[in-house]
Amino acid sequence: MLAKVLVSKYGDHVPLYRQERIVERAGLAIPRSTLVQWIDACGVQLQALMDALKQQVLQHILLHVDESPVAMLSPGKGKT
């Protein structure tokens, strides 16, 4: 379930309030606050990996990044 939440949030850009509604339709009661706690705990556990990756990446003289934009809702406007 944690992997599903993380992939949906960061890979598929599905906000937590939508994920909360999706799991409710499946008959589960997992509040958004719990999803946030899971994500925070996962971030803490993955910090050592992130530090190691950062150190390895910064050893190179050239970096390539994908700066493709991701459409997001404008707060209060209801538009992407």
From TrEMBL:
This is Transposase IS66 central domain-containing protein. Pfam families: DDE_Tnp_IS66. InterPro entries: Transposase-related, Transposase_IS66_central. Transmembrane segments: none annotated. Residues 1-80 form the Transposase IS66 central domain. PANTHER family: BLL1576 PROTEIN (PTHR33678:SF1).
